[in-house]
Amino acid sequence: MRTSMDFSPFYRSSIGFDRIFDLLEKANVPQNADNWPPYDIAKVNEDTYRIVIAVAGFGEDELTITQEVNTLMVNGAKAENGEIQYLHHGLALRPFARRFELADHVSVIGAKLENGLLIIDLKKEIPEEMKPRRISIKGATTKKPSERIEGGVAA
């Protein structure tokens, strides 16, 4: 049984969409079976987004946020305290790494830790040269209306 899709027919009729097809192929592969910590992704308005990650028990110095070209990485690691002997250890304070694929021109505009939630604000800023623009159409030189075509019929 085949579990992956073949996008090769699309490569034949599209130019410059290689990255989109690569993302679709990667989306089919599970990143990790562990869905911890839980998170939300919200669209605040037309070009602003927000990621909220539940990181209760982690401090600001135990979390790192890294933005690469089209990837946002959030890592958390609790410092080990060998002096404490737990009788019951039920808090999920294990290290984690969350990866988010970002669209072109999306960047992090801020992050804050509030009530055990890591809030990351994102904004899509399209450069001026990439925004739609109107292209003027220049007319071709037309024949003069007084020009005659063979047979005496006016053009």
Biggest sheet details: 4 strands, antiparallel
Outline:
elongated
**What is the annotated CATH architecture of the largest domain?**
Sandwich
Structure class:
mainly beta
Spatial strand order of the main sheet: 1-2-7-6
CATH topology of the largest domain: Immunoglobulin-like
What can you tell me about this protein's structure?
This protein folds into 2 domains: about 30 residues, no CATH class; about 90 residues, Immunoglobulin-like (Sandwich). It has about 160 residues and is mainly beta. β6 and β7 form a beta hairpin. The strands form 3 sheets. The protein has a 4-stranded antiparallel beta sheet with strand order 1-2-7-6, with no helix packed on it. About 10% of the residues lie in helices and about 35% in strands. The chain has 2 helices and 9 strands.
